[in-house]
Amino acid sequence: MGFFFPHWLLTLVAFCLLICAISRFFDFFHINPSIPQILSFYGMIHVGCSALGFFSQGSPGWGLILTGFGYLIFTVAFLRWN
What we know:
The protein is an all-alpha fold. It contains three helices and no strands. Helix 1 packs antiparallel against helix 2 (34-55) and helix 2 packs antiparallel against helix 3. The model has no long low-confidence stretch (mean pLDDT 84).
């Protein structure tokens, strides 16, 4: 018994964050700053839950560590967005 997060959601969230950053940079349309912050927090939570799941089965690996570092950068960048 447990929970399951499909890992393709991290890719979808990263793509949405990319669209938010591009629209902000080029001023295509106004995006509420809380949307990318919520998405980046979700990415951090997803990576954290995945790491906890992988620790019970072995080691997390470099891909998960780098993904967590990337979402940490997203989170800090979007917190400074205002």
